[in-house]
Write a structure and sequence with these properties.
It is a single chain. By secondary structure, the chain is α/β, with parallel strands linked by helices. The chain contains ten helices and 13 strands. Helix content is 42%, strand content 18%. It is globular and about 60 Å long.
Length: 306
């Protein structure tokens, strides 16, 4: 039986990765802060970087390590860039150096972000699009990528990088889809105010499909430090997204946009995912289906509170 260590296994994406690899009969070990993941055989509650991680690597001799940990907040990165650097870039190099020393045959998959692209002048965005972050988070994710490529190039590790555009799912009770869903349903027909102009766009991918993409890359990728965009390839504006949630949740309310554009956030995203498609990946959960799952989750939460 092959062993996978999922760093950040208690988080949203990490939970999906633990579940998916467990269903494939891998031995799944979850590491990081938070509660026990029911899909992991064992969970180690560690604030990484931590010296004990090397003992886990030596004990389990994993075939795969997936880094799903770190901060994922653009706003917080702008308020605390040093903390973001330690939580993201420093974490990655500490994981890689432990693998270099104690499990050099272990595949390392790092989850990066489309934030490295900033505000590209042309869409769709492919993996060769100019790197031009507009947030500390984007800079630190790109630094992670450089560190991964350093260890693969100079220390002969194996691994790949996934630039995730906009992750979502019913287990993620924050960020734009959950926030819009909660506002719209809770409004009970009253007007809803939304941040931004409404013309900002995103390209969404469900957490379950992120886990699927990781397994496909592990099985079919070159694992030579290459980068893959991970998204649906479909652009939707925030205004269109909000109206779709209104329709699917059978609500009736007026939308008002405050026109403010917070610093550090990209304006428009649409990914070229052809590189990952060539390995056999395509999304299994389309946006409307995923939105229905989020709506159902929020309505159940409201019912439980009433």
């Amino acid at each position: 039986m092959k062993t996978a260590i999922i760093v950040g296994g208690s988080g949203f994406i990490g939970g999906h990765v633990c579940e998916y690899f467990s269903e494939l009969d891998w031995q799944v070990i979850s590491v990081g802060r938070g509660s026990i993941n029911p899909y992991a055989e064992t969970h180690y509650n560690l604030q990484l970087p931590h010296d004990s991680f090397s003992n886990l690597i030596k004990c389990f001799e994993p075939s795969l390590c997936v880094n799903c940990a770190g901060r994922a907040s653009v706003g917080l990165s702008m308020k605390d860039p040093l903390g973001d650097f330690y939580a993201n870039t420093v974490l990655v190099i500490s994981l890689l150096d432990t693998i270099r020393q104690f499990a050099p045959n272990c595949i390392f998959i790092n989850l990066s972000s489309a934030s490295v692209y900033g505000n590209p002048s042309l869409l769709p965005i492919n993996e060769d699009t100019l790197i031009s972050p507009v947030s500390s988070y984007g800079y630190h994710k790109y630094m992670e990528e450089l560190v991964v490529q350093e260890y693969i190039s100079l220390h002969h590790l194996r691994g790949s990088i996934l630039r995730i555009f906009s992750a979502y799912g019913e287990r993620l009770q924050r960020q734009v889809i959950w926030d819009l869903t909660s506002k719209i349903i809770s409004a009970n027909g009253k007007p809803v105010t939304v941040l931004g102009t409404g013309d900002e766009s995103r390209d969404f991918i469900h957490g379950k499909d992120i886990a699927r993409a990781i397994e496909i890359i592990v099985s079919k990728g070159k694992l030579q430090g290459e980068v893959y965009n991970l998204a649906s390839g479909l652009e939707i504006t925030i205004k269109q997204l909000a109206n779709r949630i209104i329709k699917l949740s059978q609500q009736s309310c007026e939308l008002y946009f405050d026109g403010a554009s917070p610093s550090g956030y990209a304006l428009r995203w649409r990914a070229d995912t052809s590189k990952l498609q060539k390995l056999g990946f395509s999304p299994s959960i389309m946006l409307d289906e995923g939105l229905k799952l989020v709506i159902q989750k929020y309505q159940k939460k409201l019912d439980a509170m009433s």
